Amino acid sequence: MRTHRIPSRPAVLVLGAAVLAFLTPAQAGADDGGLPTVTPVSETPALYDDEAGGNSDADDPAIWRNAADPDRSLVIATAKEGGLRVYDLDARLVQSLPAPRPPAEDDAPGRYNNVDLVTGLRTSTGRTDVAVVSDRGNDRLRIYRIDPSKPGGPLTDITDPATAPVFSTDQAEINDQRTAYGLATWQDKSTGRTYALVSQRERTRLALIELKPTTSGTVTYQKVRTLDLPASFRIPNGTTWSPCTEPGELPQVEGMVVDPATGTLYAGQEDIGIWRIRADLTGKPVLMDKVREFGVPGVYDEATEECAAGADPGYGGDRLSADVEGLTLFQESDGDGYLLASSQGDDTFALYDREVSEDNEYEGGFRVGAASTTLDGAEECDGAAVLNAPLGSRYPNGLLVVQDGHETPEVPDGEGGKRTATGFKFVDLGDVVDAADL
Questions:
Q1: Nearest alpha-carbon partner for 203 in 249, 245, 241
Q2: 66, 101, 240, 407: which has the fewest Cβ within 10 Å?
Q3: 8 A C-beta contact, residue 44 and residue 52
Q4: Mean pLDDT score across all residues of the chain
């Protein structure tokens, strides 16, 4: 039987005898400039990426504020083959929704990758808040109505069953899994239309997708246009450089967020850096910051499944270690604020000024460290979400939720190893503001 559970990380980059990617700062020798550390208040129950755990793997969160009762606000998060999870503000599970089953035995199963929210989406039955999810396994978007008063759980699937794949032409292409991956939503103030920006796995392509109501009360979507980011770059020494990846892959985008005030899309190309792009995918993309590994040559070794790297020519950035992930927007009421990005390679978070006119100047960063022996920090963070608004008595200063790619304490798998465990950490946003001096 064909397997479709493909590792989500690119090839590991090896420089001499040292592995630079996906190691802790102590292992990689990273210099984070003495960044401050904040600690989580709580964490969700661990998800396990094995058969017993339903192949669940935490990835991307979104925070929904209940305007009528902020204490009953929710965190909606993806668990890949495990589907969707909904948590309350105490990080307790409220609802679990499975990903769709494969169309046939040998087809790829549903796999929920990223999630974002839309407030007041127009449907034939009225305006409603929804969660939009990229189903990587089926190359589709799925739309869930949010209603905290609904018996059985707040989420209801209102996706039109007739929706088409986002990038694929048939099931064979879907099974190859060059499918819908990263996702961000955007409501165009000038037209009132609602969109999702979607990236393609193992490719550099972005797609602008318009969400549309149907007469039956469901939501469908239509592709408007696409944009391909570069896969190779001319660097100052006169050569052309591409990041080392597995054969046939291109440097993909996952983390994305749109600034609603300016209609600006920020897209994290994992092994390259952060792009600033018009959200309608017109105009010229600007690479606003690069990962440290930018420009480092590498050759993929089939035997080791690693990239042997050459000398670093020094063309990379200073704040991000590949992969760059988890982009989210810290909005302030006066229009100021910050773009937050997860620097997955060194377990840090970078903050950039929200103002395009100031070229998104770097403003500092932080770590999410362990609060105790049982409440650990965030490592290898994929997704992140921030909401700078009071959330009742639990988080009066707002909330930051980050994915933890290495949940501890570890649990034995019964075969002499450890179960692969992930989860989400809840951090008081006031602690971040104080620590990072925002």
A1: 249
A2: 240
A3: no
A4: 92
